[in-house]
């Protein structure tokens, strides 16, 4: 948080004043409306208090969204009051496989109003793992940067503290690891692999679990996750969790897990506002590092047409570049972009009939392929959208059950009937789901 603040204050000061007065400051506490700052000397203290305080408050409020009062301390003043723990925690993590992807970093995460709170909390946790917010629960729909932020936290931690063991794991991997162990231990006595499993997840300083909504339906894995959570939490190890919805909205997640998720901080990432979309496009262009100029109107065209998903926003930029290359390196113009993206923004698929159209819309909505939706796969991320699609075909298009079954890859009409009943019941209890389905139906118009 302080680093973000310093970047901001640096912009409004001359280089020399920044270097003199701010470069050696540190945020050492943030509680009850008071920000405590460590400064190198009494002169700093006096000068910051008397000459810079307005700028400091203004810029810090921009970063945190909260108005803090400031107290400044010198090292001497602190000595008797606060013991700074500079000991590095943990054991050497030399051969440790953290699964971190180091392309995802804080410095290439573009910040706007919709994700500012998420980014600053993430950085706060990265700077003080296990101390600031535990667990940190990040939620928001697909493509808004949850995975990016989680890797950024992990990378930040390992880069600043080589001894910390950080483990990033998609929830599905946790579940399948666990299922493996259960299967094995049914056959033989395998204390050793159980021990390995526990070590993998519990002998870490930071556990990052992505897409926790996939834990739904895996009852015994939930139990095991609960135990893992408790053990890490009790040892002040940092836990970071992401989900495509808030804990309250994860149906069938055990109450006691929800309660624990409430112990820390829950932050949601919202869909990017126009300005953020423009900034991300600019960043993406910068990374492409190509000579072609990318006219403002093309950026605006993309930003206006691509609203809810940053992954798709990036895809659009790449596509325009690729198209320009195919056209023998011609200039990027609005006409070219419209042509390049004509299938990208609308449904990129010619539907043979209404059912096909629903399959397409629903699969786009959930970021899965139409093939998956027609497959026999039973994981929730596919099975639930499939049931929703069947429901829409039946209730909204009033299609015949057998015909729906055929279009969904040859399913029995009773399968379709059960799916329709299930969703009917679900939406009575789940308003968010109901709204989501309405949104899809509106798109059919
Ligand atoms: P989620 O996990 O929420 O589905 P991801 O973290 O996978 O989303 O993000 C999708 C893509 O968008 C990634 O390539 C990521 O780097 C990019 N992205 C998301 N948010 C931002 C951002 N604020 N700045 C830059 N890139 C972003
Ligand atoms: Mg993700």
Write structural notes for this entry.
By secondary structure, the protein is α/β, with parallel strands linked by helices. It has four domains: 2-87, DnaA, N-terminal domain (GMP Synthetase, Chain A, domain 3); 106-268, P-loop containing nucleotide triphosphate hydrolases (Rossmann fold, 3-Layer(aba) Sandwich); 274-340, Helicase, Ruva Protein, domain 3 (Orthogonal Bundle); 349-442, Chromosomal Replication Initiator Protein Dnaa, Chain: A (Orthogonal Bundle), CATH 1.10.1750. The protein has helices at residues 2-12, 15-22, 42-64, 75-79, 116-127, 146-160, 171-187, 191-202, 219-234, 255-261, 274-288, 296-305, 310-326, 334-340, 342-345, 354-365, 370-374, 380-396, 401-407, 413-429, 431-444, and strands at 26-31, 34-39, 69-74, 136-139, 166-170, 206-210, 238-243, 265-268. Helix 11 (274-288) packs across helix 13. The protein starts with a helix and ends with a helix. 32% of the residues are buried. The site of magnesium ion has 3 residues, from helix 6.
